[in-house]
Amino acid sequence: MLATYLIGLREGLEATLVVSILIAFLVKAERRDRLPQVWAGVAAAVALSVGFGWLLSYTSTTLLREYEQRELFEAITSILAVVFVTWMIFWMRRAARSIAGELRGKLTDALALGSIAVAVMAFLAVVREGLETSLIFYSAVQGADINGRPLYALIGGIVTAVAIGWLMYATAVRINLTVFFTVTGVLLILVAAGILKYGVHDLQEAGVLPGLTTLAYDISGVLDPSAWYTALLTGMFNVTPTASVLEVVAWCAYAVPVLFLFLRPAGRKQLPVPQPLEKPRA
Fold it and tell me: Is-contact 37 122, C-beta < 8 A?
């Protein structure tokens, strides 16, 4: 539940910030008449994202009848989710300062084209976050006891993100987004490492990779499966009582370098040192 709440909070806040930038621009430009088109585009993006999530679940539970096929499908979606999470985290860190200007420029162009262009622009600005959320959520809850709670946690994260976005837009409340995206980025990298570990396990279950029974560790005697901390570690970071060698290698091979690159301070370009002017010769 914590992992899915974090996914909803992070992705939801990114989408909320995008929508708030569009709304603020239209209000400032005195083009409130285009707000319905923005909301229509946002609603279409949400609907498509929900449909995509349903399609993933339907494919796994209904269309794929063979056990190996389901495991292979879940492995592929897990790997894709890790790719999207990694890309999203680094993209947001790089584009955070320029995203507002880019959105305003695109919305200005859309206003010149008409109402449909505004709706399409809003749709494209939000649908990426929605599709990522559906894919990551589906991958994060694989193998879990689906009883509705992960979905409620995801919705709770999205609602929290919308509330934070509204407070920042309508009041004087300010949040250090740099710190927020850094902390959630680190946690999401660890979640993604767990998803990749689960994907490798699915590939082993499907017979694509060997070593399913070659365990790297077995701490089932120490890590009580019924304890709350076991549920927290398993649900958040996919730290299981047993794991194969390939699963541990995949977890470490992803988490260590990605965390290093993400937490490494961004290098600053050094300005050329001005050379002293030569005195004119007499």
Answer: yes
pTM for this entry: 0.82
Strand partners, 243: 217
- For the segment 91-120, what is each residue's pLDDT rounded down to a tens digit? 888 776 777 788 888 888 898 888 899 999
- The Cβ of residue 11 has, within 10 Å, a number of other Cβ atoms equal to 28
8 band by pLDDT with thresholds 50, 70 and 90: confident
DSSP structure string for the chain: -HHHHHHHHHHHHHHHHHHHHHHHHHHHTT-GGGHHHHHHHHHHHHHHHHHHHHHHHHIIIII--SHHHHHHHHHHHHHHHHHHHHHHHHHHHHHTTTHHHHHHHHHHHHHHH-HHHHHHHHHHHHHHHHHHHHHHHHHHTTTS--SSHHHHHHHHHHHHHHHHHHHHHHSS----HHHHHHHHHHHHHHHHHHHHHHHHHHHHHTTSSS-TT-EEEE-TTTS-TTSHHHHHHHHHH---SEEEHHHHHHHHHHHHHHHHHHHSPPPPPPPPPPPPPPPPP-
The tens digit of pLDDT for each residue in 60-87 reads: 888 888 888 889 999 999 999 999 989 9
Rounded-to-integer distance, Cα 130 and Cα 8, Å: 10
* Whether the Cβ atoms of residue 107 and residue 22 lie closer than 8 Å to each other: yes
Cβ atoms 134, 50 nearer than 8 A: yes
Round to whole Å and give the CA distance between 268 and 256. 24
